[in-house]
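G.,

No rush on this.
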Amino acid sequence: MTIEFRGVTKRYEGGAVAVDDMSLTVPDGSMTVFVGPSGCGKTTSLRMVNRMVEPTDGEVLLDGRNVRDIDPAELRRGIGYVIQHAGLFPHRTVLGNIATVPLLSGWSRRAARRRAGELLDTVGLPAELGSRYPAQLSGGQQQRVGVARALAADPPVLLMDEPFSAVDPVVREGLQDELIDLQRRLGKTIVFVTHDIDEAVRLGDRVAVMRVGGRLAQYGTPSEVLRHPVDDFVAGFVGKDRGYRGLSFLSADGLEPEETATVAIGSSPGTSDRWRLAVDDDHRPRGWLEPGSTVDGALTEADLVAGGSLYRRGTSLRGALDAALSSPASLGVVVDDAGAVVGVVTSRHVLDVIERHPESVGAT
């Protein structure tokens, strides 16, 4: 379902303008991220889609139909909505929370709870959590339940208002991965609000950068925004390191991993003057053994140095560079889809690929 903003303005009593003459189209089945500083109208724009805020001027259309022509209750039941801190009902179980919209839409209790159980698996939560209450869940689990609740009636549109901003960075990255995977499988039309440019370029098919005063500064693909900011405001907002962020959109074709010395957990490794990568029985990396290390008996993970981030083969160059720079051995570990070691890369390998395609990261 396509979402279109046509000359939309929101002006409050006293003359304060939250959104100023915004026009853009969110393509069907895509994820568009609204990003900008506080007070730029991101959330107001989002909430005009489901009529929680009414525009002063202009139109918001769903597949060409003005949302003002749709009953608000009917409209909202057809749009998933996820907010910060999940907004779960504290007195309802997890299954009860997820089943809320299907029940309001006339589903039978049995069908609604069956759907809720299916969605627990969809968002990566174990079935046994269904009988718990929100207070018994971690922040990350609550956010997953919030996403499941928004998806329960299978809406074509999903609105997400800074849903991951209240969780720690590790959990946040996991939730972003879950959302990317869900979108790949479900193909919803998603409008996502964030103040974090890294989150915006990681998640969005398109990014709308907004400035204070509710003006749309630039709208385009993440790579377009990073490589060709339209003015000093956008350039400053995306940051001086936007060339590094641009690696997220540069293919790793030509980046060939090299072999590295490995040692198995549980073995007697002896000594070496080289860094050695420790692997488990499935050849998955567990950490590094420092040069000159001696181990009494069998090698355990307690003997290892943490290995830094991993690079999954076939993804963008940014992940490869992260892996190389975060590794204590300056060797980025490359893994396959099963998590098994393929080889290693260095930052020099990544730079060689970049130098063959300088235009791809040419943000200045």
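When you get to it, here's the other one too:
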Amino acid sequence: MTVRVRGYALPHGEYVDLYADGDRWTTDPVRGAELASGWLLPGLVDAHTHPGAEKPGDPLDEQLLRSHLNQHVDAGVTAVRSPGLAGEPPDWFGTDPDLPRAWHAGPWLAQHGQFFDGWGRRADHAALPAIAAAQAARTGWAKIIADWSVGDDPVPVEVLTAVVDAVHAVGGRVAVHTQHALGGVAAVTAGVDSVEHGMCLDPGLLTRMAEQGTALTPTLSAFQSMLPTVHSRPDSPVKEWLLGGASVHGDLVAAASEAGVRVLAGTDSVPHGRVLDEVRALAGAGMRPHDAIGAASWEARAYLGLGGLELGAPADAVVYREDPRLDLDQLAHPVAVILRGRRVR
């Protein structure tokens, strides 16, 4: 059945009246279209999620992958970016009409001796640029683990720079996991496309990130949720590092937004479908509610090359009874979820 959405559309707040013509929005009326009206968002995005595995090291499970993606749709998420998966996804990943659009970077790429056992691919520095470029040529993204635990050496800046050059040469983009200051310096200096987590990132790098278009996906809610557990651990260098970085991570997010860095909402957590937790965390850190919602909607969609509620754009939308900028809890209660021009919830 054809879908029609009508109401005040964010981010601009102007009144729109759109019909889905297949997977594209149009203003041409369609007789008998099912109407959903209210406050409209152009589809939510979880920009950092790893569906298909329950815990680190588990193999990719297709049944679990479908379940996790359904949880995202239930929350109004119409697109996901998976910077790292437990295995190569099935052909229906990102194309199934009932599940979110999807971008992924294949397996994580890490140095020998780092990252979770059973996950990702280890590579020598000399081989890393070619491996990353081959991955990005297939899926559009490569994900590098730039640093890992306390005392580990990060990927050198010259190696990350070579990775960026090789991936960009094939038209791809590079996402980098970093949670240490030196890894953050290397990632930003190399000009990566997105910094994932960014804990312990030097705030002095934020201006450069904004200028070169490096996005930040802070996964703030995941850090906040782990803090009570970290506090209860015995004293150790790892505890000191986690507490020192996670406790001020919200301040970094607020400073990044103020500096003009594109902040993306990503959950990096189980259960899936909890992007609202990240929006709340971003707003609680000091981002304007408008910008916190944008990080999970129009800003993330623009970053992935998706349009909003406009003529010719992909026909995704989430409908709410009230303006979610005035009450973030509205995000937990969508009236309708429209995906690829179909009402799926």
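The two ends are 13 Å apart (CA to CA). Residues 60 and 86 are 5 Å apart (CA to CA).

Enjoy the weekend,
O.
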